[in-house]
């Protein structure tokens, strides 16, 4: 299983090289020229989402998803497929289709093309549940049968190949109540041997003002299940470059040193190209790129803090 590996790159020295957990980032439509300087795990930013890969019911468009996956294959680093079942960025035609058949065809098509180390099978079940959930069983006897069905389909397609099946959501690391609701789903899936790991999105709107002790407590509550935890979409901004760096110094160590966490994916790093303004770590222009204070700190921290 890939979790036992030490994560390195074949032709670069990313920040977490030689460590027991990865530090990854997204790959957008193309791979930035300095990407391998920093990261050793990748998630396609939008390229593997259902609305991107199947805009029309009868055909698939894999180009952007291929870009991220092929780069990981070349570099020998983990790839995460993000995502199959999610209430956002679904194709427009899905409302007129049989949802279970459609998602089964999607998952089978992806399984025939990729061998990812990680998959976000269901994304944002608590906040943006899929529009096809009723066709997947709705609430059913467990209260979350549509999620169980989604994982059963994914396990049938990817099981036995070393792929870890994850659930992923935001608003978890900052909210003990949400942790308990999330655990309700997690324990159902775990009881059916369908779940291999727990994704916690860590966007700036959840972590910028969050105390390190709260991060630790909530991650430990999830880790008590015995499943690995993966902060999946970490981004941080601030009122200034220095403020961003200070927030990183509070938030990142609480995640990185927690033994329940097996890898972190930052959600973008080039200033002006990130989902949320001000979350970039490197500013690039016509004459090259300059690392912001948060990146300077992050590099130094990972050089001296080994896990």
TrEMBL record:
PROSITE patterns: GH10_2 (PS51760). One of its GO terms (biological process) is xylan catabolic process. It is an enzyme of class 3 (hydrolase). Keywords: Carbohydrate metabolism, Glycosidase, Hydrolase, Polysaccharide degradation, Signal, Xylan degradation. The keyword Signal applies. InterPro entries: GH, GH10, GH10_dom. It holds the Pfam family Glyco_hydro_10. Residues 28-307 form the GH10 domain. SMART domains: Glyco_10 (SM00633). One of its GO terms (molecular function) is endo-1,4-beta-xylanase activity. It comes from the Eukaryota. It catalyses: Endohydrolysis of (1->4)-beta-D-xylosidic linkages in xylans. Residues 1-18 form the signal peptide. Its EC number is 3.2.1.8. Belongs to the glycosyl hydrolase 10 (cellulase F) family. PANTHER family: BETA-XYLANASE (PTHR31490:SF88), GLYCOSYL HYDROLASE (PTHR31490). This is endo-1,4-beta-xylanase. It comes from uncultured symbiotic protist of Neotermes koshunensis.
């Amino acid at each position: 299983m890939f979790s036992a590996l030490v994560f390195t790159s074949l032709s670069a020295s990313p920040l977490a090289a030689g460590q027991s957990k990865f530090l990854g980032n997204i790959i957008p439509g193309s791979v930035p020229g300095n990407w391998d300087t920093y990261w050793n795990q990748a998630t396609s930013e939008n390229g593997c989402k259902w609305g991107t890969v199947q805009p029309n019911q009868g055909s698939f468009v894999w180009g952007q998803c291929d870009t991220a996956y092929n780069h990981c294959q070349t570099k020998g680093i983990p790839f995460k497929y993000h995502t199959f079942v999610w209430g956002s960025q679904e194709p427009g035609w899905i409302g007129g289709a049989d949802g279970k058949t459609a998602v089964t065809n999607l998952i089978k098509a992806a399984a025939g093309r990729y061998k990812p180390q990680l998959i976000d099978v269901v994304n944002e079940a608590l906040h943006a549940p899929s529009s096809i959930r009723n066709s997947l069983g709705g609430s059913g006897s467990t209260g979350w049968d549509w999620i169980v069905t989604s994982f059963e389909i994914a396990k049938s397609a990817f099981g036995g190949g070393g792929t870890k099946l994850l659930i992923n959501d935001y608003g978890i690391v900052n909210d003990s109540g949400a942790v308990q609701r999330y655990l309700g789903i997690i324990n159902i899936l775990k009881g059916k041997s369908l779940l291999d790991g727990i994704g916690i999105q860590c966007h700036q709107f959840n972590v910028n003002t969050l105390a390190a002790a709260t991060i630790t407590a909530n991650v430990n509550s999830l880790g008590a299940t015995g499943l690995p935890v993966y902060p999946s979409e970490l981004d941080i901004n601030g009122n200034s470059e220095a403020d961003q760096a200070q927030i990183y110094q509070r938030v990142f160590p609480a995640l990185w040193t927690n033994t329940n966490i097996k890898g972190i994916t930052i959600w973008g790093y080039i200033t002006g190209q990130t989902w949320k303004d001000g979350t970039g770590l490197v500013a690039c222009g016509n004459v090259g790129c300059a690392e912001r204070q948060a990146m300077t700190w992050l590099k130094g921290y990972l050089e001296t803090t080994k896990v």
